[in-house]
Specification:
Largest sheet: none
CATH architecture of the domain at 119-330: Up-down Bundle
Strand content: under 5%
CATH topology of the domain at 119-330: Growth Hormone, Chain: A
Helix content: over 70%
Shape: globular
CATH class of the domain at 119-330: Mainly Alpha
CATH superfamily of the domain at 119-330: MFS general substrate transporter like domains
Structural class: mainly alpha
Number of strands: 0
Distance between the termini: 29 Å
Order of helices and strands: HHHHHHHHHHHHH
Length: about 325
């Protein structure tokens, strides 16, 4: 953050593009290992997919007698996940090699003379906003919740969108895979657009656009029937708005306080806790009530993400952008 200063918003967004690129590659890697088997016959009839049964009768043996073998081959997802894991391991090996064989000494002098920070100092909010620790604590809480909601929205779509469109909109395996891939491509696009637009539009405005955009898409998704063209529009638009949320939240906070490694850790922890709590809650509800319940969860998280920018703005409205303040001070010194 200190390296880029007032221009940190652009690099923050471009760094997160990498996540979107990896995400849209994974569905295509896994697609060959997913069977064409659809939900049970009764489920398909209940969801209005009865027409697809006759079309699939030549390739899938749908029968009420579960004792008879099905012609559908079993899923081999483990192979796909092993491929993805190998790619991740290979990249991790590059970083490990860089660490082991290309170390640089940034700190010189006798270690005995260095002052080591205590654990309390690492987590002291006053380091981010000297003289106003309450403001720093509140901003960290808001960043945490913002990250939690954005991560939950992205993961819900990423985990359950494939099953939703297969069951509710009768998408084929390839159509569902393509839609999921489009979701991640649009997420990466949203991050890249954030990299460009953040150079011209203040972050306090961008977070409003992202929050209200998420809410609009979730409302349309919740109210209207899951038609194919509407699904494509809503899913792609949602991903564009969700993608830049996390870097935008960090960039906004960076304008009003000095973000430390602990601040970045708050975002990482928020994302992790979101996956550990939000996704199991959604999955448990889907098991009990059906896949359509995911839409209710996306709407709930979108409502919170649309409300948070108003809370953030009310908190920083009396604060001066620290980079604008520094620039103003430098201009006064020159005069």
């Amino acid at each position: 953050m200190d390296l880029w200063k007032e221009k940190a918003s652009g690099p923050l967004h471009i760094i997160h593009v990498g996540y979107g690129i990896g995400s849209f590659l994974v569905p295509q890697i896994l697609a060959p290992f997913i069977s064409e088997k659809l939900p049970t016959k009764d489920t398909m009839l209940d969801n209005g997919c009865a027409d697809s049964i006759s079309n699939l009768s030549n390739t899938i043996n749908i029968t009420d007698d579960t004792s008879k073998p099905s012609s559908v081959p079993p899923n081999n997802l483990q192979i796909g996940f092993w491929i993805v894991s190998a790619m991740v391991l290979g990249i991790a090996g590059i970083w490990l090699g860089y660490f082991l064989f290309d170390k640089q000494k940034y700190v010189h002098g006798d270690d005995k003379d260095k002052k080591h920070a205590t654990v309390r100092e690492y987590f002291n909010p006053a380091n981010c906003a000297p003289g106003n620790p309450t403001f720093a604590v509140l901003m960290h809480v808001l960043i945490f919740v913002w990250t939690y909601c954005a991560t939950a929205l992205e993961r819900i779509y990423g985990k359950y969108l494939f099953s939703y469109v297969r069951e509710e909109a009768c998408f084929s395996k390839q159509e569902a895979t393509n839609l999921l891939t489009a979701f991640w491509i649009c997420g990466a696009t949203g991050r890249f657009l954030g990299f460009i637009i953040s150079n011209f539009v203040p972050m306090r405005i961008l977070v409003f656009v992202e929050g209200l955009g998420n809410l609009t898409c979730a409302l349309v998704f919740f109210i209207l029937e899951p038609q194919e063209w509407l699904l494509w529009i809503c899913v792609c638009a949602s991903s564009i708005f969700i993608g830049p949320c996390v870097p935008s939240g960090l960039a906004l906070a960076n304008r009003y306080m000095s973000l430390t490694a602990t601040s970045v850790a708050v975002v990482t922890i928020g994302a992790g806790i979101s996956e550990l709590s939000a996704l199991p809650a959604v999955g448990s509800t889907i098991d009990s009530t059906g896949i359509t319940s995911m839409i209710s969860f996306t709407l709930g998280f979108a409502v919170v993400s649309a409300t948070l920018p108003f809370v953030m703005q009310s908190l920083v409205c009396r604060k001066v952008d620290r980079f604008e303040q520094e620039q103003s001070g430098n201009n006064n010194d020159m005069q």
